[in-house]
Amino acid sequence: MTDRLGPDRMTRVNDRVLRRLYAADLIDPVIAGGYYFAPTTSAWREVMTHCRPSMLAGVRCPILLLNGQYDQFRLGTKAFVQSCPGARVEVIPRASHISNLDQPRAFAEALLRFARSVDSADGS
Q1: Model confidence over 8-45: pLDDT tens digits?
Q2: Residue 67 belongs to what H/E stretch?
Q3: Superfamily of domain 52-124
Q4: Statement: residue 106 has pLDDT above 70
Q5: pLDDT tens digit sequence for 55-93
Q6: Where in the chain is the domain with CATH 3.40.50.1820?
Q7: Does the pTM of the predicted model rise above 0.85?
Q8: DSSP-assigned letter for residue 98
Q9: Residues with Cβ < 8 Å from 81, sequence gap 6 or more?
């Protein structure tokens, strides 16, 4: 879609959608950071071609699978957990794919809980 619409039009679409979904004080700094559409198409193609749950099987560090309740990517969580049974799964209630904006406090708390659990397990 990015290729078809072009960066200027995609920027306008993104800005409009984000401003409808989020308060100005929350989203204006995000929008001000700008968008980087050039790599989107090739990056997405690489993810869809090469990124598989089985890739987590060899990971030896703690893993947090963190999604919003309404995040469409949450549908694949079971496959990731099967590949990496030690992964911790958390779902942020009332949040979408952009859970850090939908529920910023819950998102930050989930990350801090995970970081503390890793720190505790490490003996630090």
Answers
A1: 899 999 999 999 999 999 999 999 999 888 777 788 88
A2: strand 64-68
A3: Alpha/Beta hydrolase fold, catalytic domain (3.40.50.1820)
A4: yes
A5: 888 888 999 999 999 998 888 899 999 999 889 999 999
A6: 52-124
A7: no
A8: T
A9: 65, 87, 89
